[in-house]
Specification:
Chains A, B: Its EC number is 6.1.1.21. Two copies of one chain form a homodimer. By secondary structure, chain A is an alpha+beta fold. Chain A has 18 helices and 16 strands. Chain A has a domain of 96 residues: Rossmann fold, CATH 3.40.50. In chain A, β12, α15 and β13 form a beta-alpha-beta unit. The first copy, chain A, starts with 14 loop residues before the first helix and ends with a helix.
Amino acid sequence: MIKPRTPPGVMELLPRDQIAFQRMLDTIRRTFEGFGFLPIETPVFELSDTLLTKSGGETERQVYFVQSTGALEKAAEGLPELALRFDLTVPLARYVAEHEHDLAFPFRRYQMQRVYRGERAQRGRFREFYQCDIDVIGKDSLSPRYDAEVPAVISAVFAALDIGEFTIQLNHRKLLRGYFEGQGIDDTRQMTVLREIDKLDKRGEDAVRATLTGEEFGLSDEVAERLLAFSRVRSTGHDDALAKLDALGAGTELFEEGRNELRELLGQLRALGVPESRYALNLSIARGLDYYTGMVYETILDAHPQIGSICSGGRYDNLASHYTRSKLPGVGISIGLTRLFWQLREAGLVATADSSVDVLVTLLDDASLPDALALSQRLRGSGLNVETQLEPRKLAKQMQYADRAGIRFVVIRGEDEIAKGVVAVKDLRRGEQFEVADDDLARTLLVEREQARSMP
Amino acid sequence: MIKPRTPPGVMELLPRDQIAFQRMLDTIRRTFEGFGFLPIETPVFELSDTLLTKSGGETERQVYFVQSTGALEKAAEGLPELALRFDLTVPLARYVAEHEHDLAFPFRRYQMQRVYRGERAQRGRFREFYQCDIDVIGKDSLSPRYDAEVPAVISAVFAALDIGEFTIQLNHRKLLRGYFEGQGIDDTRQMTVLREIDKLDKRGEDAVRATLTGEEFGLSDEVAERLLAFSRVRSTGHDDALAKLDALGAGTELFEEGRNELRELLGQLRALGVPESRYALNLSIARGLDYYTGMVYETILDAHPQIGSICSGGRYDNLASHYTRSKLPGVGISIGLTRLFWQLREAGLVATADSSVDVLVTLLDDASLPDALALSQRLRGSGLNVETQLEPRKLAKQMQYADRAGIRFVVIRGEDEIAKGVVAVKDLRRGEQFEVADDDLARTLLVEREQARSMP
């Protein structure tokens, strides 16, 4: 006998939590599709030499390799042939490069699959987790206009998920780098200074200021103060965002390019009807240091900033330089849904879902089985999810089961009901019992279900 | 530069095929939920000692092991800690045993995830493929009535998938073993004889007869002939199935038990309204030799029997004896969707889907961008999937793009249309263009879309 154990670092759910999780996945998918993104799926593993094109780095240390029994026995030298994907970006790059001639550009794709990282086992750290990504990939070029659709998608997704107010924080790498440039910090030092600024949240302003003015960076107090003031800029509302951009004063060409793109983006967000409470400038965000080259996005739950960014992304110059000579600029975002779900549950923000089963058709005696089966099937034909009690039990037991399972409607058709041509329905959510004519049953339950869904 | 390559033995789809595949997954899921099955997902890997409880065997030879970079460097002795699941049954057994006290029994679960087998690379053989499974697991016992729901689910799934007429073939291991018993073939030899009978399709009747009457088995010509006649039994229609069961004559207790369960099942199928053309006795099917103990199912596409069974399963005595002392009998089926999709495509039975995008909102000049964005967003609010042309191009180019992408509706709002308060719509499926009042646009397109979906 072996003790049954889930491997450490994965999130495995009981059915009612799985239903809640699945509904979030469905909502995200529906919203992605609403904005014209197309689905792709890639295999869980890639060829190791395809996946590991970059040299070393933290991510590579966390890769899981995959070996067939045969390869294991041969104890072959070198890297195993296959490795599990650690994100959806590298597989996307490989996919786009491999299928380049079969795709229409700009290529708008969404992908919602699990990824794998050999994280240290730790509460809230997952070795297997869902990412829900969208990206738009251009060939040779991609208009900055695509960058404005991205916050509109984020806004629609989290409004639909209904997990509280949120703010999409916006920044632009060109604005950031252009500002640094204007302060006399040249290209080569920008990255390292940015890296310090990126630590503001963790280290606090005083520590960062000390580093910036210290021996290594040698910035003047004045310049350090300006950088910190810049990174403190936050806006509240649409007009304030535009005013804050104006107030930054004149800058380098790069700076003005970034500022103009931000202004354009704000205009498009308004045209797209994104509520202005949902987006704001936050000039401290940088989103990694090498990859992003234009707009960057982070999303914060207003009431739970400690959760950190629940949806992040940005604009990059070239997706697939390791696989193709074509220049493929893009913009995209990622939602780490497993971690988000876990955090929402920890914070009590996601309730256990009702069952996906709408109706329990009860069975009072063996003779009624054919009737119960036929009734169940009729309800299914109307689009209801129905479980049939297949062995007679006391009615109280069947009610209790439905209640515990989160099934809302219990349908009873005993001799009395058959004689009257009606069905008795117990609505466990409302705690009401009512009778309804045979022919009206399906419609009545469907209407109730739709009402409940629109008013959760 | 690395040549971008999908690993061998996986099915990776272009977006429009992915949409077709996703619709099949959605249809299957909807049907499973219709019958009251609850979703679960398990991690892609299990602990190796949990997964590999059985000794050796073909499946085990095909297992993929998973190792973190660290473990690989240490070149640890023994089996790697993790292995990819090779089916959904072992993970289900582990899941039910692990969460036994949190589940309500009979536990009805569905699971639709990918599984992994180190198959020899070969056309139509996949190393990664979707399985779509349902199982009902009882605690201590499970009424045979659950066995009758299973063909009703199969019937509903394949009717909804709309891939042609099909027949669910039914047999019962107790009928089979009872019949053998009646022919004087004892328990110990039944398995090996069954294994020969199971080869009928591959080897042909003459070869099997020769083996059965040969030295190893030593059956008389008469007994061999009776076994072959038994395994030739097929029914057409409900009454014929009952008549064929009657015609088998009296048998052992085991035989009668199997026959009674088959009769009951046929009665329930009728009560569930399963069309009688969709099920038939086929007393030659055995579905593996050790695992199943009662009803067994195979499903054949009537016009494409060469594809083999597209959905199989049966009743088993004890799901999780490796993990728990609880007795957990069950019944279930599995659809290997990746292989099925591939085969349907090869046979020309699945068409490339239209895009998931319903509408392309065109853009004729930069000044109209805010209007195009607002219009797009309004349509999205009505539940339509909308792509916005973000950079102006010649209208003919935009039409051509929509046509190639499989987007049905192209929406145009130029100066003329704005002046008239209308929108011009090009319906690429019908090849028609029409005008519709601004306010009626969303409703008109939704109605058209619903009509197209109900009449494919």
